[in-house]
Design a protein that fits this description.
This protein is mainly beta and 696 residues long. 9% of the residues lie in helices and 38% in strands. It has five helices and 45 strands. It has a nine-stranded antiparallel sheet, covered by helices on one side. Strands 5, 6, 11, 21, 22 and 23 form a six-stranded antiparallel sheet that branches. A hairpin with a 3-residue loop joins strand 7 and strand 8. Helix 2 runs antiparallel to helix 3. The protein is globular.
């Protein structure tokens, strides 16, 4: 670390001087010069007062308990454990003031007794109102408070789970930590848990700029803009067109919280900036070990409110298969978090939008500190109470390479013992994932004690790796697995293929949105699939006939529509759709026998069915059907993948003939615009007996 004087820092980080650099020396020079000092600038700005004045204090005020450390003040209701106030950098309360103190910062969950959910309801929303407050730790370095609630065994209306919410403040820290311990004891009644989260609703008069990634940040509309007559709900309540927003620049745009969903592996820091006050409010998640369903599971984060969420478990982009269901008598315990709520600020004259970069720096610091060693609960183990697993993953596909291929970029993880791919539906335990390097090497560190299977998936290859050995992790254990080999499904050489096997439909043709329904953030953006109403574009492109794809001439990035959806017809109903894949056989194929293999990998399915027919659209029954699968709701929620499905279909050589051939893909279910499929990858393989033939 090197230091600059305060006047140099001020000069280089002002917007006027950066514009001067851009004009005189080019943007590259400006970027290098700025990046070389911005970390120092942040450190200078964030340096707390002398340590002698930074005294941790705990106060009791009527129905509240207050923690402060000289940098900020945190107020919680006592004994409920709601965050009612956060005072920071001259702002009396960064949270919303609605008159409802329980609606500012809180933990909540959605739950049901099995079979008790009323039709079209999401279950019982519980704000987790604690009944007991306890000081767990109070010393010169930290304060940890517990707000707990114990289930009454005679209750028939409360969720049968003990919940202990924790809040931790450290000396000289510009933020606080929160985690919660959920526990069920043996003998307790069955229950279903749908959603668990930590919510913060910020002051809408202050926080107008949202940042969730480097290329997904913008000024946001106000919640008032969503309410009629300023806003008009669209196909579902979450999507609203802004007709008369308070800020005219938003007029005509569509706002929908699902447009800002993120994959679990990418949810490290997100939040809001008050540009007038140069203050940032961020949620930092150093580890996703406690989240459900693996690294690709999508969750909500920040959205209009201004709202900031830490979602630990939800059924979004998966559906009912991810409801956390407990049988009668089933015991369970899990720690969710900790997450770090971080506040930062800049002096006047410094571009407040750069607070995002400083928050990313703090995220790196928090990741290096994980697992935290200051939490008081024995249920959150420190690093010396954890283990690790390392190895190298190789892929063996004899039709691609005669040598094993390093699984570069593969995700390798530990999860509860199960079946192939079961990790994407697993939600009661912990999961630990690592991304393999260019040699296929991986190291999964800081693993909690427990019993696990090893799972993996590799970009460029279909299917899942599963090592059914049960690995028993204990404190300090270091397991080295050496080389592991994944053999993806393969019977013969590739005749043709469509797409890229990466569990996403992003490589296919994604149309421009209807210009009347846009989110300006995603114009000319790589995530254009997040625009509203793209399902309607299919019928506009194919008003009468469905898509026909010729493998010899068509480009899947320009022709293959990224989702197979229903078509709306004139009377307001919907029709199923049938896509065609056309290909040719030449004379070399005439003597082939046995089965070709059709591999179909789906990136998502929502109340849909895939029927496969070959050269005979009227065949009944079809050659293959998935029957109805999936409730991902990915189409409506602007996703590009949900649950991954892989099907292997035998295509008899006798059903194919010389010249033109057609595979028909029919999705017949049609009661909604949101029913349909997204394909990840399709491949037709020769019979294995043809592997010696060299195609000209």
């Amino acid at each position: 670390m090197f230091l600059f004087s305060s006047h140099v820092f001020k000069l280089v980080t002002t917007k006027v001087y950066r514009r001067h650099l851009l004009k005189r020396r080019g943007w590259i020079t400006a970027l290098i010069m700025f990046m070389s000092v911005f970390e120092v600038a942040f450190c200078q700005n964030q340096t707390p007062e002398p340590e002698s004045t930074q005294v941790l204090q705990l106060h009791y005020q009527d129905r509240y308990v207050v923690m402060e450390n000289g940098i900020f003040q945190l107020t919680l209701s006592n004994p409920e454990g709601f965050v009612t106030g956060i005072r920071y950098n001259g702002i009396e309360n960064v949270l919303a003031y609605t008159g409802k103190e329980y609606d500012r910062g809180y933990w909540d969950l959605v739950w049901n007794f099995p079979g008790k959910k009323a039709k079209k309801t999401k279950g019982t929303l519980d704000r987790i109102e604690a009944t007991k407050m306890e000081v767990i730790t109070q010393n010169d370095e930290q304060i940890e408070l517990s707000f707990s609630r114990t289930w009454n065994t005679s209750s028939t209306t409360a969720v049968p789970v003990n919940i202990d919410k924790r809040f931790v403040m450290l000396r000289n820290s510009s933020g606080f930590y929160s985690y919660a311990i959920f526990e069920r004891l043996q003998g307790w009644p069955a229950v279903e848990l749908d959603n668990m989260r930590l919510v913060f609703k910020l002051n809408k008069e202050k926080f107008h700029y949202m940042a969730i990634s480097d290329d997904r940040q913008r000024y946001m509309p106000l919640p008032d803009d969503r309410i009629p007559p300023r806003g008009q709900p669209l196909a579902y309540p979450e999507a609203v067109q802004l007709l008369d927003p308070i800020e005219p620049d938003f007029k005509g745009e569509v706002d929908d919280k699902y447009e800002y969903s993120m994959e679990s592996k990418d949810i490290k820091v997100h939040g809001w900036i008050s540009t007038n006050d140069s203050v940032g409010f961020w949620q930092i998640t150093p580890s996703n070990e406690f989240r459900s369903a693996g690294p690709l599971k999508q969750f909500l984060g920040s959205h209009v409110g201004p709202t900031n969420l830490a979602i630990f478990h939800s059924t979004h982009y998966v559906g009912a298969e991810l409801i956390m269901s407990f049988k009668n008598g089933e015991a369970w315990k899990k720690v969710f978090g900790p997450v770090f709520i971080y506040l930062n600020s800049f002096p006047k004259g410094v571009d407040p939008l750069l607070l995002w970069h400083e928050a990313k720096n703090q995220t790196t610091i928090e990741e290096e500190k994980w697992p935290y060693n200051f939490t008081a609960s024995d249920d959150f183990p420190a690093s010396d109470q954890r283990g690790s697993v390392s190895g190298r993953l190789l892929v063996r596909d004899r039709f691609i390479s005669s040598e094993d291929i390093p699984a570069n970029g593969s995700y390798v993880g530990l999860a509860v013992p199960g079946d192939v791919g079961s990790w994407q539906r697993e939600c009661k335990g912990y999961q630990f994932w690592s991304k393999a390097d260019e040699n296929g090497s991986f190291s999964i560190n800081n693993v909690r004690s427990g019993r696990y299977n090893l799972y993996a998936f590799a970009p460029g290859f279909i299917g899942d790796y599963h090592n059914d050995t049960v690995f028993d992790i204990s404190p300090g254990s270091k397991i080295s697995l050496g080389d592991l080999v994944y053999e993806p499904p393969r019977d013969g050489p590739t005749l043709w293929e469509i797409g890229v096997p990466d569990r996403s439909a992003a490589e296919f043709y994604i149309p421009d949105p209807n210009p009347s329904f846009v989110n300006k953030l995603y114009l000319n953006h790589s995530d254009k699939f997040r625009q509203y109403g793209l399902w309607e574009r299919y019928s506009e492109l194919y008003p009468d006939e469905d898509m026909v794809y010729n493998v010899d001439v068509d480009d899947y990035s320009k022709k293959w529509f990224f989702m197979q959806v229903t078509r709306k017809h004139a009377n307001g109903g919907y029709n199923g759709t049938t896509w065609q894949i056309r290909f040719q056989f030449d004379d070399k194929m005439k003597n082939l026998t046995g089965n070709f293999k059709l591999r179909i990998a789906l990136a998502t399915s929502n109340v849909a069915e895939l029927q496969v027919r070959v050269n005979d659209l009227s065949a009944d029954p079809p050659l293959f059907t998935t029957e109805q699968i999936g409730r991902d709701n990915t189409i409506a929620r602007h996703g590009i993948h949900g649950l991954y499905w892989l099907y292997n279909v035998n295509v008899p050589a006798a059903s194919l003939h010389l010249g033109n051939n057609t595979i028909y893909l029919t999705q017949p279910l049609a009661t909604s615009p949101f029913q349909g499929l997204m394909y990840d990858y399709i491949r037709l393989e020769y019979p294995d007996s043809i592997n010696y033939i060299t195609r000209s």
